[in-house]
Amino acid sequence: MTQTSPLLNATIARVTDRVRARSEGMRGEYMARVRAAIAAGPARTHLSCGNQAHAYAASPDKVQLAEGRAPNIGIVTAYNDMLSAHQPYETYPGQIRAALAAVGATAQVAGGVPAMCDGITQGQPGMELSLFSRDVIALAAGVALSHNCFDAALYLGVCDKIVPGLVIAAATFGHIPAVFVPAGPMTSGLPNDEKSKIRAQFAAGEVGREALMAAEMASYHGPGTCTFYGTANTNQMLMEVMGLHLPGASFVNPETPLRDALTTQAARRAAEITALGNDFRPVAEVLDERAFVNGIVGLMATGGSTNLVLHLPAMARAAGIALDLEDFDEISSAVPLMAKVYPNGLADVNHFHAAGGLQFLIRELLGAGLLHPDVKTVAGDGLAAYTREPKLHDGGVDWVEGPSDSLNDRILRPAATPFQPQGGLKQLSGNLGRGVIKISAVAPEYHVIEAPARVFADQEEVKAAFRAGEFTTDTIVVVRFQGPQANGMPELHSLTPTLSVLQGRGLKVALVTDGRMSGASGKVPAAIHVSPEAACGGPLAKLRDGDLLRLDAAAGTLTCLTPGFEARTPVTADLTKNAHGLGRELFAAFRRNVGPATEGAAVVV
């Protein structure tokens, strides 16, 4: 059994031991399958001549591939030129092939995976496909790797569902190494707080569409990930803290010499850690319970996206590990909030990176005993390598010691003097079910809201009520039938400006939903991912307008205080309008078979 470090924080050690014990049977079966695949030897030795001829027919390296003595690296790419975060990947395959040719290895693009953008589909019917796209990505990556021609895989993906889907696939093919290759954030544009202000002014009718469009275009203006600390950038933090990126790779801007050098080094590192070399690192050994606990620690320390409370359990399950909401809650109680990045502060990820970034954060968390130091990563043994940052040297990359002090304590602070003593997420439970709330950006006076409910079946009904001037007193807005079985669990981020306006008018407001909120949301208290969902007859389906609700983030409770509430018959909703249009009919089987939000709302794991 893996032993926890004696210097580890007692809470982190206890949660890790609980995860390990909970997962023992599932993880044991998973690792037995991985060991059997490793024992079978390099994949291409088992392909027939006909199999191999088909695989190499179009490759300029067909002779070298047929010999089978050098590593062949499979590239799984989320490239498309519609989405800013993935547009830089267009040139990566050629760069990777050249980098590997220089060390006597080869590469092939094994396949592509879809990459949809929640920023484009917010408030639109296409958002109902968003969460399910994670499982489609895992399936597509699985198809790409099923040709069994590869000694390692490079995964090119950044955004919301793409990285979790690729991790699920990587864990499923756990017998080969996996290196995740980021593309980096776009350069800073219009400050995020200014963008948010103009959105609120538009929602209140104070500015027109022309001003709104100008602000949005100034904010989202070039190649790279959006610069706020939403799900996409939380993913990048996770890949580094979990040891799947090269150290310091996450937040280097696209189309820069350092970005190119890191991509070249990632390709070469993938070749070095195959079974054909002397440093074999199958990804199943990287993705153990300690890596997932480290990921949750990073999530709490940075005030990351609530979407990862869905994705991490699904990712972990693919590696034979069972996570529960109690793990997130307990880790949050022990981990200080060390970063203030929009929407939790005014800075963007470029400012965070300049202030010391992940290298400073990881150094501090290791020093405080809050991260497992003794993990296996793609860079080597031990997480200490991730306190070092990359620098250009003679056209390549050298790693030097990262900052030991924050360069801006308004953005990034030491573990001993954090912004808050605890992390940004809390589990909620009560007679309305189980859910989570992100409180890192919520002012303390809004941590407890007790108010009558207004119950809605979709977000458009909320906006219509707002336009009609119906919100004049403290209110808890309930938006139900938004869970994975109902309509795919769309984000309800487009409600943020509306609810923010009400809060700005002096009302106490909160949201309760079985749906999701964006990783960019946070200033209005929101109890999300409530499970069991209303479509399954969950408690939200019993609520009526006027019921007295209490959301208490301090106590971690979510309750209906109206007597007789539990005895009511759940209402049912007409969900036929969510069944068709923009591809929704193709996902009926997903809605029927998806698991609960508490287990990751997954179909394939």
From TrEMBL:
Protein name: Phosphogluconate dehydratase
Pathway, per record: Carbohydrate metabolism; Entner-Doudoroff pathway
Enzyme class: lyase
Keyword set includes Metal-binding: yes
Cofactor dependency: [4Fe-4S] cluster
Cofactor binding summary note: Binds 1 [4Fe-4S] cluster.
Pfam families for this protein: ILV_EDD_C, ILVD_EDD_N
EC number: 4.2.1.12
Binding site for [4Fe-4S] cluster: C159, C226
Domain Dihydroxy-acid/6-phosphogluconate dehydratase N-terminal: 71-384
Dihydroxy-acid/6-phosphogluconate dehydratase C-terminal domain span: 411-601
Reactions it catalyzes: 6-phospho-D-gluconate = 2-dehydro-3-deoxy-6-phospho-D-gluconate + H2O
SUPFAM superfamilies documented for this protein: IlvD/EDD N-terminal domain-like, LeuD/IlvD-like
Family: Belongs to the IlvD/Edd family.
Job of this protein: Catalyzes the dehydration of 6-phospho-D-gluconate to 2-dehydro-3-deoxy-6-phospho-D-gluconate.
PROSITE patterns: ILVD_EDD_1, ILVD_EDD_2
GO molecular function: 4 iron, 4 sulfur cluster binding; metal ion binding; phosphogluconate dehydratase activity
GO biological process, any: D-gluconate metabolic process
GO cellular component: cytosol
Keywords from the UniProt entry: 4Fe-4S, Carbohydrate metabolism, Gluconate utilization, Iron, Iron-sulfur, Lyase, Metal-binding
Coiled-coil boundaries: none
